[in-house]
Write a structure and sequence with these properties.
3 domains; 5-stranded mixed sheet; 8 helices; 29% helix
Length: 343
């Protein structure tokens, strides 16, 4: 699972169903008028590029060695003041990247001038009439204060599964400090993006459009190391998959009703999640109270059975189903059933 920490107001809605996002709130006056610019690696001078990449590689080494104390010392105040999330991400993924060396991809240099923006968009590289090109990228941030930022994605050599470690750095004086950290696998259940795209197309051909949508979603999750970044490749997958979005699935903040055992449940999210070599289906729904775990368990089982009864094609695409009853405050209670046990 992708884990990401970034101080901002809200997470992006494009494919943010499943990533482990941890946020702290920003404060400041929102000013609508401001300038946002971006330089690709080829646009930077050698000194700027070297400083950004060397800083990111140093922070990669700290994460790979589990040295969260030094990582915190080299973070901007907004991240250091609520560092528990970054620390948890590093500890959760330490076994995957321990002893690994980070190979940096070409970095991006972003500059936001003016006041804090409700949403900042940075268009990096060359675009043509069809949109993005092979070296371009678009970054979208919410509640981003003015400043200079760098985005660096590093491939963790020899990690299992193959993993990227990405940083958003912010310039503080002459130094580049950590503002955000993401650790994301490039495979799920032992498969990379193209495998899921191929399976999605197969499901589409068979008329199993719910499976097709979910496998496209998994492919989109894998192809983008950061949930607020889009590229020509991710845009292509989005365009290919969007017509398949099921009307009876929750999406874009819209819930979907599910009748189960005489009750109607409001589903808020359905998405795939890799667990080891298995691909499971996660189903979240609204609940007023999960403190009565016996009742919550019964509701979860009822939801699981109703989902599979309504969408029987899911049986052949997922190893298990996890239903999560979620209170308005975010507390939840989950139940897993292997697909073979869903009767």
């Amino acid at each position: 699972m992708n884990h990401f920490f970034l101080p901002r107001r809200v997470c992006p809605a494009s494919i943010g169903l499943r990533v482990g996002l941890v946020m702290v709130m920003l404060t400041g006056t929102l000013v609508p008028a401001r300038a946002e610019t971006c330089k690709t690696s080829s646009d930077m001078d050698d000194a700027s590029r070297s400083a950004i990449v060397s800083g990111a590689q140093r922070y990669f080494d700290l994460a790979a060695s589990g040295d969260v104390a030094t990582l915190r010392q080299n973070s901007v105040p907004a991240a250091a003041s609520d560092f528990s999330a970054i620390e948890a991400v590093v500890k959760d993924h330490h076994t995957e990247i321990a002893g690994s060396h980070g190979t940096a991809r070409p970095p991006f240099l972003l500059e936001a001038e003016g006041g804090t923006s409700a949403q900042a968009e940075f268009f990096c590289g060359v675009f043509d009439r069809r949109g993005q090109t092979s070296d371009s990228a678009v970054f979208r941030f919410d509640g981003l204060p003015p400043g200079k930022y760098a985005v660096v994605i590093l491939d963790a050599a020899a990690s299992k599964p193959p993993t990227t470690v990405s940083f958003v750095l912010q310039q503080q004086g002459t130094d580049w400090k950590v503002r955000a950290l993401s650790i994301a696998p490039t495979q799920a259940a032992g498969h990379a993006t193209e495998w899921f795209v191929s399976r999605a197309r197969d499901y589409k051909t068979k008329g199993q459009l719910h499976n097709a949508w979910l496998y496209y979603l998994q492919a989109r999750i894998l192809i983008s190391p950061l949930p607020f970044m889009s590229t020509a490749a991710s845009d292509k997958l989005y365009d290919e998959s969007q017509p398949l979005l099921p009307a009876d699935f929750p999406s874009g903040g819209r819930s979907a009703d599910l009748v189960a055992g005489g009750a109607t449940y409001k589903l808020t999210a359905i998405f795939p999640q890799a667990v080891g070599d298995d691909l499971d289906l996660i189903v979240k729904y609204e609940s007023s109270d999960v403190t009565d775990t016996s009742h919550a368990y019964q509701s979860n089982v009822a939801v699981i059975k109703a989902v599979i009864a309504k969408f029987p094609e899911l049986r052949g695409a997922f190893a298990a189903v996890v239903a999560r009853a979620v209170e308005p405050g975010g507390r939840d209670y989950g139940t897993l059933l292997a697909m073979k046990d869903v009767k």
